[in-house]
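cron nightly-structures :: item 1 of 1
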Amino acid sequence: MSGLQTLVQTIRESKGMAHKKDIAIAMGALAGAQPCDSSCLVGDDCAVFKSADGSYLLFAIEGFMNEFVQEDPWFSGYCGVMVNVSDIAAMGGRPTAVVDAVWTADSSQLEKILQGMAAASARYKVPIVGGHTNARNKQSQLAVSIIGSANAVLSSFDAKPGDVLMSVIDLRGHYHGSGNNWNASTEAPVERLRADLELLAQVAERGLAVACKDISMAGPLGTTLMMLECSACGAEIWPCAFPSPKGVPVERWMQTFPSFGFVFSVPPSSVESMKQLFGSRDLLCYEVGHVTADSRVWLNHEDERELLWDFSDRSLLGCSQLNKSNHEFGDAHACGSI
C-alpha cells in the first residue's frame, strides 16, 4: 500500500471522522422538526438569524467527550470557550457571550473546568453570562453555547467549482498532551489571539472568500470534506500543501484539531489578497486544492492520486440532499451547528 493510500484509509477510519458521521443521524431524525423558515439549511458552524438592521445574530453550541472532560478538566473548560469562538469566526462573526452546562462528581473537578473557562473568557474577551452547574453527577460532562454577530456571513454551502481551496493554521504552538490537539492559544499573547480572529470578519466583509469552516476534530481533510458536501461539490486536494509544523507526519497532521485553523473556498481573484491579509499577522494561508463540479474528492501527492470520498456513493454529514439553490439568508435563516 502506498503512502497516499495509507493516508486515505487513515482519514476514512479516523475517530474524528466517525464522530462527524453521527451528524447524519441527527439530520434524519430532525427532518420533521419545525423549520425556521423555507430557506432553512442544516450543516453550518452556527445558526444564523438576520436582524432588522441587516446584521446577523449567530448561535452555536459545542459538547465534549466525557473522557476528555474527566481526564483534562482545565483544558476542556478552556476549549469550551475557544472552539465556540472559532465557530463564530468561521461564519465571519465576532463573539458576544457564552453560557455553559457542566456536571461533575465533585466540586474539585467542577472548579478546574470553570477555571479553564474563565481563563479562555479573559483571553478572548468573551464574557460568561450564565449556565447550569451540578457537582453531584456520576461523571464529568460539559457543553458550552455562544452567541455572536456578523455584518456579512461565510457559509459552508457556497463553495463553487473553479474556486481555490485555501487553509490558514497558526503553527506557533505545540501538541497538548499525547492527543491530536494543536494548542496555539493558551500561551499566545492575548492581543494577538483577538486580532488574529478579527481577520475572519474581514474576510467576510471584504468578500474575499465565499465559504469557510473552522478545522474541527475531523482534521484539515475531514473538515474540507464537510464543506464540500454542504456545497454539493468535489475537489482536488494536495494534503502536503496545508500549513504544517516541521517534523509532524502528514498522517497525524491531517487528523489534528488546531486551536486556530480554517479552510476556505476562494475565487481565484482573491487568492493573493487572502495571503496578504493573513500574512500581515504572520499567519500562513496556502492554496491546498481547487473545487470541482464532480461528486468526488481526490488527494494528490507527487505522482500519486487517490480517491478520498465520493458523495454520490456515501454521504458524510447527510447534507447532500439539501437544495443549494434555496440557500439565501432570510429573516430567520438557520443552519444547524456542526
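cron nightly-structures :: done
The radius of gyration is 19 Å.
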